[in-house]
Design brief:
Layout: H1 3-13, E1 22-24, E2 27-35, H2 36-39, H3 46-63, E3 67-77, H4 82-98, E4 102-110, E5 115-123, E6 138-142, H5 147-161, H6 164-174, H7 180-186, E7 192-195, H8 200-211, E8 213-217, H9 226-231, H10 235-244, E9 251-255, H11 260-266, E10 271-279, E11 284-286, E12 289-290
Parallel strand pairs: 3-4, 8-11
Antiparallel strand pairs: 1-2, 2-5, 3-5, 6-9, 6-10, 7-9, 8-10, 11-12
Amino acid sequence: MDERAALALLERELEAAGDDAAVVDGLVITTDMLHERTDFPAGTTRYTAGWRAVGASLSDVAAMGAEATAAVAAYAAPEFDPEELLAFVRGASDVCERVGSEYVGGDLDGHDEFTVTTTAIGRTDDPVPRSGATPGDVVCVTGTLGRSAAALELFDRGTRREDSDALERANELFRFEPRVAAGRTLAPYATAMMDSSDGLARSLHQLADASGCGFAVDSETVPIDDALYKVATTDDEALERATTFGEDFELVVTIPEDALETVRSSLAVSLSVIGSVTAGEEGITMDGEALEDRGYTH
């Protein structure tokens, strides 16, 4: 059983499961686990690891349209190197500060592999689920896609060639800004929303499953980050990575078309219209062709 099958099983068992975070009496709660072998490429600094790990959970709070309140992390490693531990905590604290939240501590444990479990909490009286997309809405993406795909290429180049500049740039790209402020701005207008941690294509399939709808996407409107164009060999490769690689933590959101300009004028980040919501029987397409359900797999 892979992760998606396990999640589907749990959604049938747990009433609160299925969105980016659980909401209990206005309290938004989410948790994530990241491992060195699967989530932190060679060359990732502990500062970046702290930022990224906590940022992943803050991104789930953002996807619910909630205000981020606080975060904690359980830090496990073969040994507690003081410089690495402090760097991790500083990265975690800085990403929280970036979105108006606070890093308030956590737990320490010994483990044979560097592993982090993070929990973030937030508040909202009107959470945005994945289940409200309606035919006629437009589907949009905040920011750009492909930063993490570009970072992975630079981590590989940096470690193979001992290129410190490539590693520095890779770490910069890995430190994304959780879209908490954007989520709060989008919340009053959004009919459905989630983050793109599993990739754009998979996010669209997940939204479609939850909302009982389809999507028609135009590839020319997908916002691909310049960093990805610099490492990809062709534009087609850049598009594929931008839509399927994942780990970008942007927001994928559906809103009524007549609210688009109002929303854009209030956002501090770009919002790209990539297509429209269609009837469920029309499926999910890009440029008229079926868009395969591919994305990040843990």
